[in-house]
Amino acid sequence: MLLKSKLLLLTFLCLTAIVTQAQNQESYIKGRIYDSINDIPLQSASVVVYKTKDSSLVNFQIADYKGEFNIKDLPPKTPMYAMVTFTGYISQKITLDTSNTFWDLKTINLKHVDSSNLEEVVVKAVAPIKMNGDTLEINPDAFKLDSNAVVEDMLLRVPGMVVWADGTITMNGKKIEKLLVDGKPFFGGQTNIATQNLPKDAIQKIQLYQEKDPTKIEGQDPAKKDSLYSLNIQLKADKKNGLFGKVTAGYGTDKRYDASGVIQAYDPKNQYGIAFGTDNTNRTSGIGSGAFLENTFKQNFWRYSYSDPNVSGIKKNLWANAKYQHSFNEANNGRFYTRLTGDYGYSNIKTNVFTNTDQTDNLITYNQHSISNSNSDNSTNAHQINLNYDSRKQYGDYVNINSKFEYSSNDNNSQSNYNIFRNDTAISANNVLNNTHSNSKNVNIGGFVSRNDYNKQNNPLTSYSLNFNVNYDDNNSVTQTSNIFHSFVDTVPSSTIIRNYNNNSKNLSTNAYLRYDGFKKLLFGIYNFYNIDISLNNRISYSRNTQNNHVQDLDTLTNSYLDNNYLTYDNTLSNFNYSPGFSLSKSINKNIYGKYYYWLYINASIEHNWIDQNNRSSLLYRNIDRNYSLWTPSININFNKQKNNQYWMYAYLNANISPSLPTIDQLAPVVDSSNRYSVVSGNPFLRAGKTKSINYNLSIDRSNQKAKSGYGLQLNGYWSSAQNAVIDSLVYDASGKSIRYLLNGDGAKNFSLNGDIHFSTKFKTKYQLQAQYTPNFNINSSPSFINGFATTSKNQTLGHGVSLSFIIIDKFNMTIGERIINTKNTQNETATKIQNNTTSLDATYTVIKNLNISSNFNYQTNKASTNKTNAAIWNATSTYRFMQDKVEVKFTAFDLLRQNKNITNFANQNNIGTTVTNGLRQYFMLSFSFYPRKFGGKQNNNMGVIVR
Hey, what's the signal peptide range on this chain (predicted)? Predict the structure, then answer.
């Protein structure tokens, strides 16, 4: 641990020294830009600095509302010139004297373009960035990059823009929430699919702007911000259609294999994507729909997709995914649209897992110790189809229809052995064999219709929103089990159960929510009512669950299966809920152009819930009718403030009271005698409970285009307290079986707080430094009874995460991190502690233009009580590209030190233990990849494919 701390400190000091040295050597240029006649500042004028030698871009900036600029990170003693431009004015070229290290240009007066001075207008260079109204526009042609450069290569060079290690993009500290291509989501809207695939040379311009959050206007999600920061990539006229992808095949030692393919194509109206693959390398990312995210043309210089060392067992994946999107118009306006999207997914996952667990339970008066081992073979086939129709004709008017169809089947064979000890004395053993086949079908149809004129100027009486959803499930399972129980105490007999289950359940659920926003106009007419909006809310839901369970036991005397009359039963559960209510809301905002903007939104609502539960069963004790009448109030407060070139802040607070109702299986459960060590005893007298909760969110980001550094803070908090919650009263018998009696009780509480503090800086054009600190804290208390003794279990978790990234664009990047998680469980003054530490190092170095080497190292420590496990997982990759970067050879090494042990120490409410599973071991793999790429060309309108 001491060695790790020294290495982290040494790395931090080295990077700090590099940054300090670079900052000490920097030069800068400043000044202000004015209209030569009216003597007013020209906000949003562009100032671009070029090298005199080859007119290559050095740096640039947009003038603020005072017309001022301050461009830093200029190379000292380098011949340069500055171009000052503004739409409708004559540009000025200013030569910078190399004898200076900084330049104060004072006031630069620009002249209007008119008929008398048209000859003076000479375009010397392409401005890389400019303001067009309230939209920031980036011109890719101003960036001289490699011919194979993609959009992300350019974004990394834009001042104020940061691509973070997790793929998040921020501009002047503000997160880009939505990315579009020609006004449309690009293959699902994930940022890196566009930025790491589309070539820079295919881009006409990139636009950044703020727009209203659609869900906020509709009132769908009050936690959403008032506005979103969006990025739109406009393609050149001859690049409106294209094809790109990646096909990979690899084979390695220990018979490891990994093969996959991703092909994507687009035109002005359509997007097509197909992905497929198979592997036995325990991959958890880059498969299924995730394949579109990781198989991009640009090397993901933050991390390579390695096998997951934390996966239990050995997985074999076979998968396929297809995507389609059709836009019914070719407009580049992302605000108004009509589109249809669909995708299909298939997966076949086979897993073999061996598990050994050693666990000790604290039962107050004595300890119960269990040793178990199991072997499981599992195979799952799944198909899923999603369809989504979206239409937005004007602000506030939406139609969305979405549907999902799923089918899955599963086969599982398992064998488990349990040995139970009271202190050090054996009291029972259990051997279980299970063979299960199951299948399930699911159909879900939902959507919303909204007519909500944001300014309520057209006809506020017709302002409403409607949400609806219908879901249907059909599940079938057949299980054969052999359960042999050995008791080593006289009071509990040994027994053998050989049982067959044939179970079917069908579930239909529907719900709808209607909100009418024209009630104020209907009630008060032309009176404004202090700008307070009044909405009527109506929620209605109905569900029906039908079960048919047929269970048979083997009669050893006749060697035939006989019906188990207790476990064989029919059951129908119906739930009906009607919740009318109303809400009051008020919005306050102020905007002074170029200076600041703030927005405050308050919403208070109350609903009354009438709930009817009806259960009918062939088991008479489960025939239960219950009715509830409950009030559920809530309040939401949103605050958003932005001060130009200083900071951006968003805060959100939600407080509500929600009901918690006992289920039929808590009121009158069906107890299966094959569950040897855990039995639930129901309580038909359980009452409805309620939970009070508060959610809080705060985000602050520095937003200054003149600064080369940016930083921000995000804080999330949650608190809840339950009254009349269902709690456990556990009683353990002589064989080690726990019987759970259910009671109502108070005292269940939860509090959590987590944060994200991040910092980034750019210097000398190609260098970046990023730092991030992510703390989290959680504490919850759960009252219960154990063997008649009242006890409260408190679970406390405190975590710290630190990461530091250093990047030399196109050459080198390194990220070091430390994650520490401490968990403490306390019960009756007896405390158990668990600690997980992970020290990580990820680095990638470009040896020559097309040759990269990458290494990933994780040192993991897992400690619970006296049990401690260490593991050093070291992976490495080397890649080489040729044939215009379209062919790649990659060599991968997994677990070079052979330390992947799959050992986990755990501590829960009243137990502590260790679990060991089988997992992936060291292997080496050689793979080949091909990147098909074609942008532009003729378009076949019938097929929507590219014709070469």
Answer: 1-22
Neighbouring C-alpha atoms within 13 Å toward the C-beta of 122: 5
Q: Which of 10, 34, 32, 224 is nearest to 112 (CA)?
A: 34
pLDDT tops 60 at residue 220: no
What residue ranges do the domains of the chain occupy? 28-127
The angle formed by the CA atoms of residues 583, 588 and 591, to the nearest 5 degrees, is 150
Q: Which of 416, 418, 425, 430 is nearest to 368 (CA)?
A: 425
Single pTM value for the model: 0.86
CA 830 to CA 817: how far, in whole Å? Answer: 33
Q: CA of 501: how far to CAs of 564, 594, 699, in Å?
A: 10, 70, 53
Architecture of domain 28-127: Sandwich (2.60)
Buried/exposed 253-287: b ≥16 CB within 10 Å, e otherwise: eeebebebbbbbbbbbbbbbbbbbbebbbbbeebb
CB–CB of 781/792 below 8 Å? yes
- DSSP for 513-555, please give it: EEEE--HHHHHHTT--GGGEEEEEEEEEEEEEEEEEEEEEEEE
Q: Which of 664, 685, 780, 783 is nearest to 730 (CA)?
A: 783
Q: How confident is the model at residue 224 (pLDDT cuts 50, 70, 90)?
A: very low
Task: Report yes or no: 871 and 863 within 8 Å, Cβ to Cβ.
Answer: no
Q: For residue 291, give the 3-state DSSP assignment.
A: helix
Mean pLDDT value of segment 414-429: 94
Q: How confident is the model at residue 942 (pLDDT cuts 50, 70, 90)?
A: very low
pLDDT, one tens digit per residue, over 232-258 is: 999 999 999 999 999 999 999 999 999
H or E stretch including 154? helix 151-155
What average pLDDT score do residues 286-306 get? 77
